[in-house]
Amino acid sequence: MEIKFTWPQGFQSGATHAGFKADQQLDFGWLVSDVPAVAAGVYTKNQFQAAPTQYTRSLIQKGQTLQALVINSGNANSFTGQPGLDNAAQSGHLVAEKLNISSDLVGVASTGVIGKQMPMDKFKDGLAKLTLTSQSQLPEAILTTDTHSKKTCHALTIDGKTVTITGFAKGSGMIHPNMGTTLGFIATDAKIEGSLLQDLLRELIQSSFNQITVDGCMSTNDMVVVLANGQAQNQTLTAKHPEFVSFKKALQTVLINLAKMVAADGEGANKLIEAQVQNAANPVEANQVAKAIVGSNLIKAMLFGEDGNWGRIVQAIGQTQAQLNPNQLDIQIGGIPLVKNSLTVPVDQAALHQILATDKIIITVNLHCGEAQGMAWGCDLTYQYVEINAAYEG
Amino acid sequence: MEIKFTWPQGFQSGATHAGFKADQQLDFGWLVSDVPAVAAGVYTKNQFQAAPTQYTRSLIQKGQTLQALVINSGNANSFTGQPGLDNAAQSGHLVAEKLNISSDLVGVASTGVIGKQMPMDKFKDGLAKLTLTSQSQLPEAILTTDTHSKKTCHALTIDGKTVTITGFAKGSGMIHPNMGTTLGFIATDAKIEGSLLQDLLRELIQSSFNQITVDGCMSTNDMVVVLANGQAQNQTLTAKHPEFVSFKKALQTVLINLAKMVAADGEGANKLIEAQVQNAANPVEANQVAKAIVGSNLIKAMLFGEDGNWGRIVQAIGQTQAQLNPNQLDIQIGGIPLVKNSLTVPVDQAALHQILATDKIIITVNLHCGEAQGMAWGCDLTYQYVEINAAYEG
């Protein structure tokens, strides 16, 4: 059940302006658990993985446990060589010192301009100002070109205990995650086995964050981390726990909600585009076709123009390697059939234009090749996207 | 040697307005050889290959010989089912009848809107008006959103005879060829073995048309066809002919010239972007990295804004699977070093901005992993690209 934003039991956060960004904007924050939490993560597949991404990945792989995450926007600490790695490690150590915990328990994440060293004096100034509160400013502090923060909160009952799952994420350019993703963080007070949490995240990321694209560009800093501190006092979740499936569904909802928020707030976007692929030969191909549709510049520009030129949807589907049935393709936009059995359907243009004028466009495609389903999310391509990226210095 | 535009010996052409496009624009034409010509072709890998593309491919595969090509713009005859295939075949038959040659010798090509049946009455009206001349209007007749025609002409001497190679092509959206490509046609009077010409085209397309991208969208209609009618009377070119290498180089130049013209006139483009990759582990990876750079929306928008944010070049390179050396990457824009051994280089910003203001931007990347080179071409991402594609109905 979706609930009003709150941190799960035993989590606190803080945010401040450290000076990575101008104009007194929030650009620095932390998420801290009262006790060490089971941790799982997925990370970008970009070969130039940024220093904080490498650092946090190695910590989680080693111990599957974190107690705190420190996050900044305004500087990605990416492509910064050994000094960058040293700065990421030092960041973790400074936070550990302030919290009086082991530095192995502090993850680090950064987003912003690539290729500039972290100004560690600003980091220290910021850290001195950070406090622990129950407030919800942290999701604001991690934004770059986002127009608003992305957060979602879900509650469910396990062993009669209330378990809360709270997620937050950022966009909104260089968004084309693979395995890892843009920055996304999920805190829960559920008690769960570490390896199970890692498996679960790896599985669910495929149909959530890995199914969004804003511009086809995979960031060097992508990561999604889940912390589970067990403070809900449920029986430890294993794959056999009778309520494991409910937990999995709730976590999936949180991941998909965040992914959709990132897509809808893509740079310059006016509209969320959702592609629903039905009856693909298998789930991988269903996802592949869905992502090809939301990733097409031509479709993105066409939907900005509120135009229903479905030939571009055919083009995008045909560009994939998915199994297709050339004589049995159905395409709908917003529930209005445009193509049925690979033939044009007469369309009520007034009704179609009414749908194209809304801010969420659903493209449904039936491949008639099997029984698998897939979804993906993206946004339209607008003048503002070009404007933002013609002069982004971070 | 590049020469003024002319058709090779024994080729004539014609162009007219048949009515596929509005406003009396040229939209229909043909290229005809006096005698049957050796023919080679490469075609789109989009799974929804258009009817004329399927039809011409099958003709060339069967006989490696064509005498005429009929080409229209304004209607792609793509995703049109069996009626579309029938119309492509009928188009070839009608042309063969008028020329009094076998219909197996007439290739068909179309470009324009996807999903509409060919108006065969317009085809017939157009065909009635077509004549054979030495004029150069045909390259105009195949354009869609192109701002100007793309043609190039090269001459060389083989066995003491002058051989001419004349190429023309169209862009300018849905450009991301793979194996085949956007429409490109090359006529030559060279005498050459059919299978050798096919092998040559397949090889040279990889480093020319397959290395351009405008928007990442692979068309359903892409094809490049070469006709060689032997009227230059040279000894038949085989792989062992002493001047085969000169012919190969000339054909490569023609293909690359056309490819660059298509990229530079990409929809809405202000600038040609050329990526030069040096010292890659192998040629495939060199081409892959070059194409990733020219294909990045973020880099394309940045160059429209005349901005030199090289972090985006790092991001694009890292997104590939190519072998990289994280501590030894060099990046230059227009010959100005921005990154050396993976470290920022102090830059004369005035000089950089002067280069970024020109209409041809060369990005040079040294991977320090081997000895292979690769190039790719694209264009900037502009407001006009969005504008054109927000309302393209063809």
From TrEMBL, chains A, B:
Q: Which reaction does it catalyse?
A: L-glutamate + acetyl-CoA = N-acetyl-L-glutamate + CoA + H(+); N(2)-acetyl-L-ornithine + L-glutamate = N-acetyl-L-glutamate + L-ornithine
Where it mainly occurs, coarsely classed, is cytoplasm
Give the record's keywords alphabetically: Acyltransferase, Amino-acid biosynthesis, Arginine biosynthesis, Autocatalytic cleavage, Cytoplasm, Multifunctional enzyme, Transferase
* Annotated EC: 2.3.1.35, 2.3.1.1
The protein's site described by Cleavage is found at 180-181
User: Which annotated residues bind substrate?
Assistant: 144, 170, 181, 267, 389
Would the keyword Glycosyltransferase turn up in this protein's UniProt record?
no
| Job description of the protein | Catalyzes two activities which are involved in the cyclic version of arginine biosynthesis: the synthesis of N-acetylglutamate from glutamate and acetyl-CoA as the acetyl donor, and of ornithine by transacetylation between N(2)-acetylornithine and glutamate.
Q: Which GO terms describe its cellular component?
A: cytoplasm
Q: Which organism is it from?
A: Convivina intestini
Spell out the residues of the site Involved in the stabilization of negative charge on the oxyanion by the formation of the oxyanion hole.
111-112
Q: Is the Transmembrane keyword given for this protein?
A: no
**Oligomer status and interactors:** Heterotetramer of two alpha and two beta chains.
User: Where does the record place the catalytic residues?
Assistant: 181 (nucleophile)
For this entry, the protein name equals: Arginine biosynthesis bifunctional protein ArgJ
The record's Pfam families line, in alphabetical order, gives:
ArgJ (PF01960)
What protein family is recorded?
A: Belongs to the ArgJ family.
Q: Which InterPro entries does this entry report, sorted A to Z?
A: Arg_biosynth_ArgJ, ArgJ-like_dom_sf, ArgJ_beta_C
